[in-house]
Amino acid sequence: MNIQIFGASKCFDTKKAERYFKERRIKYQYIDLFRFGMSRGELNSVITAVGLDNIVNPKDQDYELFMHLARKEDKIEKLFEIPEMLKTPIVRNGKQATVGYCPDIWKNWE
Fold first, then answer.
1. pLDDT tens digits for 21-73?
2. First to last CA, the chain
3. What is the four-CA torsion angle of 93, 99, 100, 103, rounded to 10 degrees?
4. Does residue 97 carry a pLDDT above 80?
5. Which of 11, 21, 27, 59 has the highest CB neighbour count under 10 A?
6. Strands across the sheet with 96-99, in order?
7. What is the secondary structure of 12-77 as a DSSP string?
């Protein structure tokens, strides 16, 4: 198991996700999404796993602008440029991924 948690230091659900894996002694790598972002490959992998619409934070100030972009490629580029638009935490296990706090799914990864 190769767990990566992309999150924000002030995000309550990110802290809960970290605690979930710590309590089960499952090693994970934490990446501060707003400081380091995601690579294009990581972003595309997560989008493939959960869907483009499920990864975007509808509360973000740029959400309306994002929704008016017509092409999928333009939307992905915008997410790559502005990682603050992503919901957190994003938890990856290889090609599998979740967005938000999802212990029921993570339980199946153990």
1. 999 999 999 999 989 989 999 999 999 999 988 998 888 887 777 777 778 88
2. 8
3. -40
4. yes
5. 21
6. 28-32, 3-7, 90-93, 96-99
7. HHHHHHHHHHHHTT--EEEEEHHHH---HHHHHHHHHHH-HHHHB-TTSTTHHHHHT--SHHHHHH
